Amino acid sequence: PVRLAVFASGSGSNFEAIVRAFQTDQINAEVALLVCDRPDAFVLKRAETLGVPSVAFRPKSFDSKEAYEQEVLDHLLGASIDLVVLAGYMRIVGNTLLKAYPNKLMNIHPSLLPRYPGKQGIVDAFEDGATQTGVTVHIVDEGIDTGPILAQETVAIEPDDTIESLERKIHAVEHELFPKVIQTYIKKLQKEHA
Ligand code: GAR
Questions:
Q1: Which residues does the record give as N(1)-(5-phospho-beta-D-ribosyl)glycinamide binding sites (predicted)?
Q2: Which residue's alpha carbon is nearest to atom 1 within ligand 1?
């Protein structure tokens, strides 16, 4: 089976949606590891409940970004991870990981990229007065929220929406879309290797 690692920094609702989808769907793949860069993040509790092994790091306690990523990479290799997905991982991926997983790193972003990249895509679209925004899943490259787009889904911003209601709508779309796109990508990789 394809072994997947999820990277997350916060609540982990996408992590949970991915794990549950992989448990119920017919796919020769499993979520084998959670990597977290905030030892107090709620996603670690979800991993424990769901029975997914996890590792947590304090990037600031390393001498450099390279040293941090090398430590993460050692865990990925130790767990024989084939594919990495970023699900609310609020950190720019550096060369150490990019080189080790070329085209094997995927990210979800809460906007229709290239609009509203960065750390607060939902708030930025809302405050800009946009009438629509959405969700993008893409392959990670060295840029911030750039790289080949795998899928996008539009979410309307209605006049009576608040940031909270918009967040709920976006998350609901993410939880459906992300597991599907990951599974489609895994099937594509499996065909290439067959
Ligand atoms: C998600 O909305 C994800 O798209 C976003 O963080 C949230 C994490 O929620 N990612 C980014 O903004 C990346 N630039 P979760 O922890 O509940 O899955």
A1: 12-14
A2: 88
Cβ neighbourhood burial of 192 (10 Å; 0-12, 13-18, 19+): exposed
Which residue blocks in the chain are alpha helix, DSSP H?
A: 13-24, 43-50, 65-78, 95-100, 121-127, 163-193
- Which structure tokens are listed for 91? 């950190």
pLDDT per residue as tens digits for the range 51-105: 999 999 999 999 999 999 999 999 999 999 999 999 999 999 999 999 999 999 9
Closest alpha carbon to 84 in 32, 14, 151, 28: 32
Which class for 58: exposed (0-12), middle (13-18), buried (19 or more C-beta within 10 A)?
exposed
Give the position, in ligand 1's atom list, of the atom nearest the Cα of 16: 18
How is 144-186 classified by DSSP, letter by letter?
Answer: SS-S-EEEEEEEE--TT--HHHHHHHHHHHHHHHHHHHHHHHH
Residue with tokens 């794990």: 19
C-alpha 133/C-alpha 14 separation (Å) is 18
Active site members: 109
Q: Is the CB of 111 under 6 A from ligand 1?
A: no
